[in-house]
Amino acid sequence: MAGVFTFHVVSPEGNVLKEDIEFVILPGVNGELGILPNHAPLIAALDAGVIHYTINGTKTKLAISGGFAEVSDNKATVLADTAEFGEAIDVPRALAAKERAEKRLAEKSADTDIRRAEYALRRAIARINAADSKRD
Ligand code: ATP
């Protein structure tokens, strides 16, 4: 089939997704990575963020908390630390995680691990955004 490539997402919990897709945007640590069919080979580290992919023109969102992506031979593989589809996300839990992280960052006590709190905040924001069907 022309115009598609295989998109495979795996997490420690198992296979998350394996589909032929038209387009995906990945949250690379240095910015978003857009992948179309026959993309050049690539290995990239991913940040906590939202994966957006398109099948038959329909867009779907998947929150990940970081990982790695490999693209080769018309196939994109993501090894994600965690992965949740929008509808599987517990929004109150993510909002509570966001609030906790924001509080830690605002207080910035001597023993606050800033990078850890910032990462928790990015994970929470990714989940909230992936769960929001009104947001692209
Ligand atoms: P929390 O502080 O709420 O535990 P966290 O960012 O520390 O959030 P992770 O360590 O990234 O959580 O994930 C632990 C497990 O819980 C993973 O399996 C992940 O998929 C799941 N998970 C975390 N937050 C949510 C959520 N809001 N909705 C659904 N699953 C979640």
What report would you give on this structure?
- By secondary structure, the chain is an alpha+beta fold.
- It folds into two domains: 5-86, F0F1 ATP synthase delta/epsilon subunit, N-terminal (ATP Synthase, domain 1, Sandwich), CATH 2.60.15.10; 90-131, Single alpha-helices involved in coiled-coils or other helix-helix interfaces (Up-down Bundle).
- It is built from two helices and eight strands, in the order ββββββββαα.
- It has helices at 91-107, 114-131; strands spanning 5-11, 14-21, 23-28, 31-35, 42-55, 58-72, 75-80, 83-85.
- Strands 1, 2, 3, 4, 5, 6, 7 and 8 form an eight-stranded mixed β-sheet that branches.
- The chain is elongated.
- The two termini are 27 Å apart.
- 27% of the residues are buried.
- The mean pLDDT is 95.
- Adenosine-5'-triphosphate is lined by residues 65, 82, 84, 88-90, 93-94, 97, 120, 123, 127.
